[in-house]
Amino acid sequence: MDYRAFFAYIFSTLETRDVNEKKAEAAWIFQHFTGKSNLEIPILDGFFTDIASVDKVIKERNNGIPLAYILGYKSFYGRDFQLNKACLIPRCDSEILIENMLMKVEKTLSEIVIFDFCCGSGCLGITFAAQYILDNPSCKICLYFIDISDAALEMSLKNAEKILKNQVICKNIPMDIMNDKWDFDRKCDVFISNPPYIPSIDIDKLDNTVKDFEPKIALDGGADGLKFYRKIAENIGKVVKSDTLCGIEFGIMQEVMIKEIFQSHKLAFYKDLSHIMRCATFKIDEY
Questions:
Q1: Which residues pair with 172 in a beta bridge?
Q2: Residue 228's pLDDT band (boundaries 50, 70, 90)?
Q3: Mean pLDDT of 249-260
Q4: Quick one: pLDDT band at residue 12, thresholds 50, 70, 90?
Q5: DSSP bridge partners of 47
Q6: Spatial separation of the C-alpha atoms in residues 97 and 248, rounded to whole Å
Q7: Around Cβ 258, how many Cβ atoms within 10 Å?
Q8: Residue 216's beta-bridge partner residues?
Q9: What share of the chain is helix, strand, coil (3-state, %, to 5)?
Q10: pLDDT of residue 287
Q11: Distance between CA 140 and CA 137 in Å, rounded?
Q12: Which residues of 156-167 are buried (b: 16+ CB within 10 A; e: fewer)?
């Protein structure tokens, strides 16, 4: 079938309920198999013939499996991040944290150490490093990935090698931040974290595509969803410098408690694309 018919076939066969999500997923599948944007369809010549491969993807998606896990990657800040099922799927709302941290960080550093706590796929730390290099290509960057999951750490390193290549020194640190000692060989200039923040009682209320497929360990934030933030606030002084820039992402309606937990710091809060308070930044030397 020609490309116009191919895109129409994908869209009509997908059973995704939300029409906007359905359009986005159809466009993603089209680009995955053709290497072209669906916006190019009016000028594309030729035909697509491997319908069996497409049908396999659509069947898995219609069975509820997130498309990111089926295809093995998700776009974040304009870059494709490889995923395995140990990694939470990156959300575009997390880009807000990166944007605001990049606006606040010192642009002329000759060396910068970044800690990405609860790193998952590494999308936050890698994106920050990649964007910082664009403004300061001579800066020496060391990026630490910290996570309890060895499989997530392995994926972070793969993404770093693919996206950052040899521009950044990367190091994996297997760590249970709730129970292990916060003991590192150096302190960081930038601290980023998107820890689990869903209250345990709410896990079963999540959409099936989340609760049935995304790693529970990356979702469950304890009784009130805030246990990791309390642990971070308790220990962050051990891993930061006097002028470290810190950024954290959190859940819906958690900003009041986040402000209380980090009450010794002057937090700046930011809303996500749905105008929900989603993340905060602070400098260690600002009170």
A1: 145
A2: very high
A3: 97
A4: very high
A5: 2
A6: 7
A7: 22
A8: none
A9: 45, 20, 35
A10: 39
A11: 8
A12: bbebbeebbeee
The architecture CATH gives domain 85-283? 3-Layer(aba) Sandwich (3.40)
CB 129 within 8 A of CB 135: no
* Contacting residues for 280 by C-beta, under 8 A, at least 6 apart: 247, 248, 250, 255, 258, 259, 262, 267, 268, 269, 270
Alpha helix locations (H) across 138-254? 150-163, 208-211, 227-235
Beta bridge partners of 73: 82
Structure tokens at 42: 């009016």
**pLDDT of 114 over the 70 cut:** yes
Are 259 and 283 within 8 A, CB to CB? Answer: no
Q: What's the pLDDT band for 207 if we cut at 50, 70, 90? A: very high
Which token pair is 245? 């820039």
Residue 209 — very low, low, confident or very high, per pLDDT cuts 50/70/90? very high
How far is the C-alpha of 105 from the C-alpha of 251, rounded, in Å?
A: 24
Judge contact between 211 and 88, C-beta under 8 A: no
CA atoms of 84 and 154, how far apart (whole Å): 10
